[in-house]
Design goal:
Blueprint (H helix, E strand, L loop, with lengths): L1 E5 L3 H13 L3 E5 L2 H10 L4 E5 L1 E2 L2 E2 H10 L6 E5 L4 H10 L3 E4 L4 H14 L7 E4 L2 E4 L4 E4 L2 E2 L4 H12 L5 E2 H9 L6 H14 L5 E4 L3 E4 L3
Parallel strand pairs: 1-2, 1-3, 3-6, 6-7
Antiparallel strand pairs: 4-5, 8-9, 9-10, 10-11, 12-14, 13-14
Helix pairs in contact: 4-6
Length: about 220
């Protein structure tokens, strides 16, 4: 797999590059937004490991620009910021997963493997389930043709479910992605799922008892 590692710290780039190279990946590196975009304009990547804080901009800007231009390569964002708001903003910008700094190399390798198995999401992802339509590019949800407003956190949950193509997502992964801690946010997650069902359709989100949730099958 071809991986682009974007981080302005040489030691981080070196450690990540050596770990991923040992796993058999072909690794390229960049130290800034400009260098990352230049590299992506010349070569294709199967996955991007992207630092949030870069010297000439933000990893969020890179995410947004790539998604606007139709690049749907999975993005693993590295960040020292662990707030829920930062994670939701990142998901809205187009990031697929987060890893907080400092991180364990074993976890980085595992997350890269998981994103590699998932592959790129379809461009202009659009989901239709019964009378519910979800346009993820336009961030527009409709029920029987009428638009239904969703919050950023609700879209983040639906994004995560849609990215798995109907496969269930564990509660711990949802909590880690959206609350930054698998041991926090359980009650809030239940409220969020109930709110999505109430706004759109009770059958839209399927509960897998003892494990987690999934988007209803087509």
């Amino acid at each position: 797999m071809r991986v682009l590692v974007v981080d302005d710290h040489p030691d981080v780039r070196d450690v990540v590059t050596r770990a991923l190279t040992r796993d058999g990946h072909d690794v390229a590196t960049a130290a800034s937004v400009a260098e990352a975009l230049s590299t992506l304009a010349c070569t294709t990547s199967d996955l991007i490991v992207l630092d949030l804080a870069l010297p000439d901009g933000s990893g969020l800007d890179v995410c947004r620009q790539l998604r606007r231009t139709g690049v749907n390569t999975p993005i693993l964002m590295l960040t020292a910021l662990r707030s829920v708001e930062q994670r939701v903003e990142g998901l809205d910008a187009g990031a697929d997963d987060f890893l907080g700094k400092p991180f364990a190399i074993a976890e980085l390798r595992a997350r890269v493997r998981a994103l590699g198995r998932r592959g790129a999401l379809p461009k202009d992802l659009y989901v239709q389930r019964g009378e519910v339509a979800l346009d993820f590019l336009a961030r527009r949800a409709t029920l029987r043709g009428s638009e239904v407003p969703l919050t950023a956190k609700e879209w983040a949950v639906l994004d995560l479910f849609a990215s798995r193509g109907g496969r269930p997502v564990s509660r711990s992964e949802i909590l880690e992605m959206l609350w930054g801690d698998a041991d926090r946010g359980g009650a809030s997650l239940e409220v969020l799922i109930a709110r999505i069902r109430r706004k759109l359709d009770e059958a839209l989100v399927v509960t897998h008892r003892g494990f987690g949730y999934a988007l209803a099958p087509a």
